[in-house]
Specification:
The protein has 195 residues and is mainly alpha-helical. The protein is 70% helix and 2% strand. The protein is built from 6 helices and 2 strands, in the order ββαααααα. A two-stranded antiparallel ribbon has the order 1-2. Helix 1 packs across helix 2 and helix 3 packs antiparallel against helix 4. It is rod-shaped and about 85 Å long.
């Protein structure tokens, strides 16, 4: 007797596909995959039953979306690792978070598409992003200190230090605890130019 892995239906005449899904659950899976292929950032769309679904074309579109998401994540990680602009860093971090959430959504639709869990990868990403964030603030601080060193008047040096401190205040709420520790030392060093 066959039994659907998703809904639990069973019966002597029930047919299940190679994934162990009854026809209704298999149809719902394809609809969810098609909705993901159309827009991986929205909730699952409910599509009408009259639409004929072609599993191969849907899986191909999902694969294309998956590749694009991985490309965006890779680009975002590279940019976050090299930038010294906080605006760029935090916008790319938000883009990466959105992409990971799309992958988590896809994993909920069909876990068999992944060899490792996107949710676990997101946890790893958060740890690496925290380290990259601290390095970004260190690069920004080095640039500010270099600029201060090249300035001639005390007033110009104080203005440059003040500008950096204002930037720290602007991004204070977005900083990880690790970055807060790094920038607290920056604040102390730059306050010397203001007195």
């Amino acid at each position: 007797m066959a039994k659907c892995k998703q809904c639990g239906k069973s019966g002597l005449f029930l047919r299940v596909d190679k994934r162990g899904l009854c026809p209704d659950c298999a149809d719902q899976r394809l609809k969810a995959l098609r909705a993901f292929a159309a827009n991986p950032y929205e909730g699952v769309l409910v599509l009408g039953k009259s639409t004929k679904l072609n599993e191969v074309s849907i899986l191909s579109a999902v694969s294309d979306q998956h590749k694009n998401i991985v490309r965006i994540l890779t680009d975002s990680a590279k940019i976050m690792e090299n930038t010294k602009d906080p605006s760029t860093f935090y916008s790319r971090k938000e883009i990466a978070r959105r992409e990971f959430l799309a992958l988590v959504r896809l994993e909920k639709i069909d876990p068999s598409l992944f060899s490792s869990s996107p949710a676990e990868s997101y946890s790893n990403f958060e740890a690496v992003a925290g380290d990259s964030e601290s390095k970004m603030w260190a690069r920004a601080f080095e640039g500010t200190v270099s600029k201060i060193g090249s300035l001639k008047t005390d007033r110009a040096k104080a203005n440059a230090a003040s500008k950096y401190l204002e930037m720290l205040d602007q991004y204070d709420s977005k900083m990880s605890p690790q970055a807060v520790k790094v920038v607290s030392a920056h604040r102390e060093m730059l306050r010397a130019y203001l007195s």
